[in-house]
Design brief:
This protein has 710 residues and is an alpha/beta fold. Strands 1-2-3-4-5-6-9-10 form an eight-stranded parallel barrel, surrounded by five helices. A six-stranded mixed beta sheet has the order 11-16-15-14-12-13. It has a five-stranded mixed beta sheet with strand order 18-26-25-20-21. The chain contains 21 helices and 26 strands. Among the domains are: 258 residues, Glycoside hydrolase, family 3, N-terminal domain (TIM Barrel, Alpha-Beta Barrel); 115 residues, Sandwich (Immunoglobulin-like), CATH 2.60.40. α16 crosses α20. 30% of the residues lie in helices and 20% in strands. The structure holds 1-deoxynojirimycin. The site of 1-deoxynojirimycin has 7 residues, from β9.
Length: 710
């Protein structure tokens, strides 16, 4: 930037009103709209006037590069200060080239896929003029009823942190920003994934212990990846809305983590503290926001309309505003906005870059790694000569890219019918057995294999899309069972944005969890069905047997009365009507290869705090197909002052194996991998026995123990 432009100079030249405007973010229609009514309606709703609009610091969402350029031009013409607008937008799993939904990406157990998704999405978003993406969501979630599980990386703190960090590094070019990179606003700080009963926006009541151990570390890792912004969450934590939660925003984020990130509210969440019952009116909301450390409000005008008064009264000092606006100016300088207010926005390059062959290939690569093979009795991979009947609600559907892809276009991408067409002898999207005629059933029976494309529509997950019943909708279980009875070979493809109850499908010949795989969904599924690619995804969330088991997650405590199937004692921790275990556990996923594990060894039987434990295991691909395996390392600290989970994931490696290839896989563990957070969030570890567990799923591991000596 022009060296003459300094933060202090800019600040000194600004009126208080102009400064406060920088702390507000609104949607583009406040500035450009074909309908005056929309603009004035919007202004009225926020109770702001046209003059205030031209002090606003940032925009939420943008239609494309031309719109961005037009808006920036008109803003700079009308504004009385010299700060260009900053553009922020939701780029969750792709801008125009859509990658698998984050929960699917997590199933790859391969942070490299998240990095690529971030990098490519950044390149496309940059060409449309976006500076900051509201991504990734770092909320850990253990309740599949919550619609937003689709936006996160699942139930485990380690996996969520690794994926989130890699995605941030991909988006931001490891925090360096510049051409083809965008900054990240990680979200939703904090604990949003623990919404009670999985109902969106609901109360969160977390113990400090669980907060430190399970929920906070992923946000921290994502910040270490180079995120510049943090978005607060809608929920309360310990009775205080996260948006005005001093403990979260000041004590944890700013003091403990020493983060300089700019804090932005979620959509209207500062005003919503009134509905929470945490402020009487907007003026009090504004005061609480400032005192808690909230820098920018999204889609509300609480700061705009009340900060001046609070400053005049002396309850808020102008220096507090200067500190916040100073950070915003610093960021605008950092991304080069003063040199080029339009940054990457360019209609021609956007058209060239977005949806390029290279991007589509990478989206397919990610999709191939994101599918989880849940069952297979040998019917898969299909043979080229086998004829297929394809039925069910997703047989001809274009709605495969998944929720939260506002620039993604379903209509551009192929359906399953279109990709599988060469071998199809019958296809129908009717989803009830009774609707099929005798003649149709005869044709289905004549096919070599029946593929049923089932699941929940992409509109059933995402924000405000919680479900209390996570069975497949519209009695697809009955639909399946009727065909199961009369058809020899049945393959089920399950689409969905959350773990679903699949107990009724256990007797299937093969089943794949396809989630929503983005732009290349149907191509990736085809390659996997035919064995042109080998499934390698693992589940990032446990799949319950029934809804009553929720919340169910692998890293639970042992309890004082752990269930033992061999025991005659009836007073053990269990249900009368269902097993404790999930239908499919965390980390589970089959392959067409057969991976075997042996010779787990550790470098020492006792370890001191400054030493490294080396762990190795022999993994063999005992098959004639090459494939990838996710080797998972868990630990268990058997006895501690604060009880620890029965298993905790600490390392993952995704490794490619040639047919019949054997590899020795090495890991290293240090103090930080073994230690745990206490009630104050301090890391600690007492002397004692620790177990190492290595395998291809959380429930199938080899074990070796060692002693940690303080
Ligand atoms: C509300 C959502 O909670 C958040 O994730 C999103 O980034 C904002 N709206 C902006 O669209």
């Amino acid at each position: 930037m022009n060296k003459a432009i300094k933060k202090e100079e800019i600040l000194n030249n600004m009126t208080l009103k102009e400064k406060i405007g920088q702390m507000t973010q609104v949607a583009p229609y406040f500035f450009i709209s074909d309908s005056e009514a929309t603009v004035y309606g919007a202004l009225r709703n926020l109770n702001i006037n046209k003059e205030q609009v031209y002090t606003i610091g940032s925009i939420l969402g943008i239609g494309g590069p031309s719109e961005m350029i037009k808006l920036q031009e008109s803003y700079l013409k009308n504004a009385t200060h010299e700060l260009p607008l900053m553009f922020m937008a939701d780029v969750i799993h792709g801008y125009k080239t859509i990658f698998p939904v984050p929960l699917a990406l997590a199933s790859s157990f391969n942070p490299e896929m998240a990095r690529i998704a971030g990098k490519i999405s950044a390149k496309e978003a940059y060409s449309s003029g976006i500076h900051v993406v509201f991504s990734p969501m770092c909320d850990l979630s253990r309740d599949p009823r919550w619609g937003r599980v689709v936006e996160g990386f699942g139930e485990d703190v380690f996996l969520t942190g690794e994926m989130a960090k890699a995605m941030v590094e991909g988006f931001t070019n490891k925090g360096k920003l510049g051409k083809d990179a965008v900054a990240c606003c990680i979200k939703h700080f904090a604990g949003y994934g623990a919404s009670e009963a999985g109902r969106d926006y609901n109360t969160v009541d977390l113990s400090r212990l669980s907060l430190y151990r399970d929920y906070l570390p992923a946000y921290k890792k994502a910040l270490e990846g180079g995120a510049d912004f943090v978005m607060t969450s809608f929920n309360t934590l310990d009775g205080v809305p996260a948006t005005i939660n001093t403990f979260l925003l000041r004590k944890i984020l700013k003091e403990k983590w020493q983060s300089k990130a700019i804090v932005i509210s979620d959509y209207d969440s500062l005003t919503q503290i009134i509905d929470h019952g945490a402020a009487e009116n907007q003026k009090e909301a504004a005061l609480k926001g400032i005192k808690a450390g909230l820098d920018i409000e999204m889609a509300s005008s609480v700061y705009m309309n009340h900060l001046t008064e609070l400053i005049e009264e002396g309850t808020v000092k102008e220096s507090e505003i200067d500190e916040i606006v100073g950070k915003i100016i610093d960021f605008k300088i950092k991304i080069g906005l003063f040199d080029n207010p339009y940054s990457g926005a360019n209609q021609a390059s956007e058209s060239e870059i977005c949806l390029s062959e290279e991007h589509m290939d990478l989206a397919k690569e990610a999709a191939l790694e994101s599918v989880v093979l849940l069952e297979n009795n040998g019917v898969l991979p299909l043979k080229k000569k086998q004829s297929i009947a394809l039925i069910g609600p997703f047989a001809k559907s274009r709605k495969l890219i998944g929720p939260w892809s506002w620039h993604g276009r379903n209509d551009l991408h192929k359906t399953l019918e279109e990709t599988l067409k060469d071998n199809l002898v019958f296809v129908s999207e009717k989803a009830s057995y009774g609707e099929y005629t005798d003649e149709e059933i005869k044709q289905i029976k004549e096919a070599d294999v029946l593929i049923m494309a089932l699941g929940e529509d992409e509109s059933l997950s995402g924000e405000a899309h919680s479900r209390s019943n996570i069975h497949l909708p519209n009695d697809q279980e009955g639909f399946y069972q009727n065909f199961r009875k009369i058809i020899d070979k049945v393959v089920v493809l399950v689409f969905g944005g959350r773990p679903l109850i699949l107990s009724e499908f256990k007797d299937v010949d093969a089943m794949m969890m396809c989630w929503f795989l983005g732009s290349s969904s149907s191509e990736a599924i085809k390659e996997l069905l035919y064995g042109e690619a080998n499934p390698s995804g693992k589940l990032p969330m446990s799949f319950p047997r029934n809804i009553g088991q929720i919340p169910i997650y692998y890293n639970h405590f042992n309890t004082g009365r752990p269930f033992d199937p061999a025991s005659k004692n009836m007073y053990l921790s269990k249900y009368l009507d269902v097993a404790n275990t999930p239908l499919y556990p965390f980390g589970y996923g089959l392959s067409y290869s057969n991976f075997t594990y042996e010779n787990l060894s550790i470098s020492k039987d006792s370890l001191k705090a400054n030493e490294t434990l080396k762990v190795s295991v022999k993994v063999k691909n005992d098959s004639d197909l090459s494939g990838k395996e996710v080797i998972q390392l868990y630990i268990r600290d058997y006895v501690a002052e604060i009880v620890r989970p029965v298993k905790e994931l600490k390392k993952i490696r995704k490794i490619h194996f040639l047919p019949q290839e054997t590899k020795i896989i090495d890991f290293e563990l240090n103090y930080d991998d073994l230690a745990y957070f206490d009630h104050e969030g301090k890391l600690k570890l007492e002397s004692g026995k620790i177990g190492i567990f290595v395998g291809g799923s959380s429930d199938k591991t080899l074990n070796k123990d060692f002693y940690f000596i303080k």
